Amino acid sequence: MLFFLICVLMLFLGYLIYGRIVERIFAIEPSRPTPAIAKKDGVDYVPMPTWKVFLIQLLDIAGIGPVFGPILGALYGPAALIWIVIGSIFAGGVHDFFSGMLSVRNDGKSIPEVIGDAFGTSARVIMRVFSLLLLILVAVVFVLSPAKLLNELIHVDTGILVVLIFAYYFLATILPIDKLIGRLYPFFGFLFIFMAFGITVALFFSDHAILPNLNFSVNTNPDKTPIWPLLFITLSCGALSGFHSTQSPIMARCLKNEKHGRSVFYGAMIMEGIIALIWATVGLSFYETPQALNSVIAASTPSGVVYEASMSLLGKAGGFLAVIGVVILPITSGDTAFRSSRLIIADTFGMGQKKIRERLTIAVPLFIVGFIISKSEFETVWRYFGWANQALAMLVLWSAAIFLARKNKFHYIASLPAAFMTAVVITFILNAKIGLNLGYNISVAIGMILSILSYFVFIHANRKQNRPI
Length: 469
Prior knowledge:
The protein is mainly alpha-helical.
């Protein structure tokens, strides 16, 4: 229990200390009008109270990532907890803050436009396609996962649940942000946080030993898959996730003042890290062995772990509410994934979105594509999502580093985690069966070399421009 509490404390200190450092390096301008004020349109650009923007941001970025990811990460042992803490503070928080604040500084533009400003026109086009692909994969994953959870809870046919969830997503995509999302999300956010901490208390007062294995040098994964780079691909949303960068512009269009950026963007990432700690601890403590945990995952995906642990620790009534709290996560990210897709397409083609007809023109084809992809196997979609997700996180961090370098600011807060994630994503795609399927050792070597090379290219480019490094 003590180690868990130390991890939570470290996240709070990270927000208070490192988050403030990141904020000062970025140099917020409280007197500068935000897009919510300057471009208010009553649909996407809508000023909202900071507490509401925070809760919506938390639910936008969370999805099933800080639940399913940590449960899968728990298979690797307590190293998952270390990555959650370090990743949230030094990578995820930085990534989310810059993806949100760079959007604020660029009229609330979507992330492909922000990255295009850093890398050029070609990168802008590539990122438009890449982001749309990622968002549609996310939306589909976040239809299938809540449908499976609800099926276990209320025993309604999964196909019917998928249709109902898609119907809700459609409404959330086309309606003004304050009409549905702005009204439901604050309630959902409070319920989610309350139930997450409820299951923590129940676990601590149960007969289960809390984190019985703290041997960080041992990889406990039953399939013997290596920690590097698999842990950093599998456990994403609770530590670092490129998906967050596609969601932050939604709230960048609702933020009333830049001084609230740290609490909304960096703060939501830290809160997600705490949620991830909770579920990783459940995975490491509720089951006696990694094999027992793995057998439940293999039988019914991590949703089976959520259902089993919630019902056992909280009873039927409490377990029902806990599962509903977890179901809320993917639903409240799936709808904004489609909404972000609509905004990216609108930004790309310069299409106005104030009229309902203009929104329907984009939304209808999007949902047709999403429904077709939803017929694929969950595991296949999740594997592709995992790599694409972290590849986007890498690119956003490099964009933040370039932004800071151009401003002659301390770019290391972004460039170092960017180089780290470059090694992760390259090693994974070289070694994975869905990639080039090369040998593990050669994949690691190439990943490290290309990561170091990319960093030196970045440094050299700064020197060439006579910028301090």
